[in-house]
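Hi V.,

Quick status before I head out on leave. The structure for the redesign project is tokenized and pasted below; the design run finished overnight.
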């Protein structure tokens, strides 16, 4: 088992429901693991997200579960949320003309990922209201190599009511936002190279 595979199977001491109301940081993981990000409560990892590995868009691991996001179609933002054994947990359906989309899980949980007019602010909402606020800083109109600019913060509502499988909804949203930011940054690099 290599270092990246080991990082995805680590025993997490905290679950997402144990850190509601706290600001979590999504930072690049240790320098030796390419594409690996760690969602941390202080210095304690709560989840790991790994991008572009073995044909998956994003691989996710936390205390409660492991799953992957995989493209459902060649074009567009339709992603399957799959267990490691291939079982379908749900789907993410991106909007055609605006950022964000819907997360629908097989257990009936539904949530919406919305991007505010302030480009780096996102919110997860369900029928009861806001569940989570996410501030994305991976791309905010300028490219930088400073680590602090790569940080994303996630704040769960103190009482995230009416949402089952909170970890799958929130971490799927984090993966989608990171993919969105990566595509925006790649487009900006391409524009700068002209």
């Amino acid at each position: 088992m290599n270092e990246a595979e080991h990082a995805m199977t680590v025993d997490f001491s905290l679950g997402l429901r144990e850190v509601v109301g706290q600001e979590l940081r999504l930072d690049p993981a240790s320098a030796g693991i390419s594409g690996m990000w760690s969602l941390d409560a202080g210095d304690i990892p709560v989840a790991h997200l790994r991008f572009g590995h073995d044909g998956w868009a994003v691989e996710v691991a936390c205390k409660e579960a492991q799953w992957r996001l995989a493209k459902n179609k060649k074009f567009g933002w339709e992603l399957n949320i799959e267990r490691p054994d291939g079982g379908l947990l749900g789907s993410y359906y991106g909007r055609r003309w605006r950022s964000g989309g819907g997360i629908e899980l097989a257990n009936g949980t539904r949530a919406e990922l919305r991007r505010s007019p302030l480009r780096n602010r996102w919110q997860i909402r369900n029928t009861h209201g806001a569940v989570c606020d996410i501030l994305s800083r991976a791309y905010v109109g300028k490219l930088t190599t400073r680590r602090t600019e790569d940080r994303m913060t996630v704040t769960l509502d103190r009482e995230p009511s009416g949402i089952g499988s909170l970890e799958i909804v929130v971490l799927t949203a984090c993966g989608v936002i990171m993919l969105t930011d990566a595509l925006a940054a790649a487009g900006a690099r391409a524009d700068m190279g002209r």
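Above is the designed sequence. The longest strand covers residues 44-53.

G. will cover questions while I'm gone.

Best,
W.
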